[in-house]
Amino acid sequence: MNIDGIPTRSLRAHPAQRCIDIIDQARLPHVLHWARVSTLDEAAHAIRAMQVRGAPLIGATAAYGLAIALNEQADDARLNAAVDLLWKTRPTAVNLHWALTRMSRLLSELPAEQRCAAAWAEAAAIAEEDVAQNAAIGQHGLGLLRQVTRRHGTTLNIMTHCNAGWLATVDGGTALAPVYAAYDAGLPVHVWVSETRPRNQGLLTAWELAQHGVPHTLIADNAAGILLQQGKVDAVIVGADRIASNGDAANKVGTYLKGLACADNGVPFYVAAPRSTVDFDLPGGQHIPIEERDGDEFRLVHGLDSRGVPSALHQLPAKEAVVNPAFDVTPARLITALITERGVCPASRDGLLGLYPEEAGV
């Protein structure tokens, strides 16, 4: 995707220097800052503190974090300790565990002296696969959006939630990949961007859409329902942090409410994600672990002060009791279809196995 017209990825690997650069997303949309990650602890912190976020990007960052961990020492003790540390950073995004499992399976079979180079190569492969998969998701989703456009015949109004664009992946995005494909194909498209409290990841969506030139409008989370009632939304597309084998999908908290509102108003509700986000080991969404974030994310409001300096203000007393779940689960019955790199399918086990028959034995 583009920043000021320049094609840019959310992660830059420097194998020769044994480090990576990431966009510190905790500082967006006010400041674009590239942060260098050159130690295992820095990689774990970047994931835990949401300097990088979005399931696919978390997975790619974890893969590179493991490669960084093996720079100086690559014996079994170091490998296992690094996997354990990274594994515990975020519980809901299954791409994290998928990437670490893939990496550790490969590396554990190699002698220690070969592991570092192999880790960097495999992390790069995971990153490149993510880019290719997102491009495929975009094209499959574009087919759906063309159908919606034919029915409505005017500007295509898409609503999304959280940020599932290129900032949440290595490049291209998941939920926004079809939007970018539609825009680049010349379809008249407009995006309703919900703010996504309390972390306001919708502001990241607005920032990246603006960078690419896609028309969009920010809305308060609670405005989504009335826009759907008024017929101002043609489709909702969201990403996912984990999809159970029956099609239930965990995404940023507030997604479930949009799914309910779509069902009540006859608006299609799509979930876009690659295979690495599907957890065939989980029979249903009730088994997906829901991350509980620190309450200060809710108590504090971040922005720029009157001098244009980033700052935080208390919107609640410091001791106010709060609950801050990071995700919720939208049941498969509310999902019109899943959009993956292999195509579009119903949100069901049969639908997923139709695209991924190799998982039938899981």
UniProtKB/TrEMBL annotation:
<protein>
    <recommendedName>
        <fullName>Methylthioribose-1-phosphate isomerase</fullName>
        <ecNumber>5.3.1.23</ecNumber>
    </recommendedName>
</protein>
<keyword id="KW-0486">Methionine biosynthesis</keyword>
<comment type="pathway">
    <text>Amino-acid biosynthesis; L-methionine biosynthesis via salvage pathway; L-methionine from S-methyl-5-thio-alpha-D-ribose 1-phosphate: step 1/6.</text>
</comment>
<dbReference type="GO" id="GO:0046523">
    <property type="term" value="F:S-methyl-5-thioribose-1-phosphate isomerase activity"/>
</dbReference>
<dbReference type="GO" id="GO:0019509">
    <property type="term" value="P:L-methionine salvage from methylthioadenosine"/>
</dbReference>
<keyword id="KW-0028">Amino-acid biosynthesis</keyword>
<dbReference type="InterPro" id="IPR042529">
    <property type="entry name" value="IF_2B-like_C"/>
</dbReference>
<dbReference type="Pfam" id="PF01008">
    <property type="entry name" value="IF-2B"/>
</dbReference>
<comment type="similarity">
    <text>Belongs to the EIF-2B alpha/beta/delta subunits family. MtnA subfamily.</text>
</comment>
<feature type="binding site">
    <location>
        <position position="90"/>
    </location>
    <ligand>
        <name>substrate</name>
    </ligand>
</feature>
<feature type="binding site">
    <location>
        <begin position="53"/>
        <end position="55"/>
    </location>
    <ligand>
        <name>substrate</name>
    </ligand>
</feature>
<dbReference type="InterPro" id="IPR027363">
    <property type="entry name" value="M1Pi_N"/>
</dbReference>
<dbReference type="InterPro" id="IPR005251">
    <property type="entry name" value="IF-M1Pi"/>
</dbReference>
<feature type="binding site">
    <location>
        <begin position="251"/>
        <end position="252"/>
    </location>
    <ligand>
        <name>substrate</name>
    </ligand>
</feature>
<keyword id="KW-0413">Isomerase</keyword>
<dbReference type="InterPro" id="IPR011559">
    <property type="entry name" value="Initiation_fac_2B_a/b/d"/>
</dbReference>
<feature type="binding site">
    <location>
        <position position="201"/>
    </location>
    <ligand>
        <name>substrate</name>
    </ligand>
</feature>
<feature type="site" description="Transition state stabilizer">
    <location>
        <position position="162"/>
    </location>
</feature>
<feature type="active site" description="Proton donor">
    <location>
        <position position="241"/>
    </location>
</feature>
<dbReference type="InterPro" id="IPR037171">
    <property type="entry name" value="NagB/RpiA_transferase-like"/>
</dbReference>
<dbReference type="InterPro" id="IPR000649">
    <property type="entry name" value="IF-2B-related"/>
</dbReference>
<comment type="function">
    <text>Catalyzes the interconversion of methylthioribose-1-phosphate (MTR-1-P) into methylthioribulose-1-phosphate (MTRu-1-P). Also catalyzes the interconversion of 5-deoxyribose 1-phosphate and 5-deoxyribulose 1-phosphate. Part of a bifunctional DHAP-shunt salvage pathway for SAM by-products.</text>
</comment>
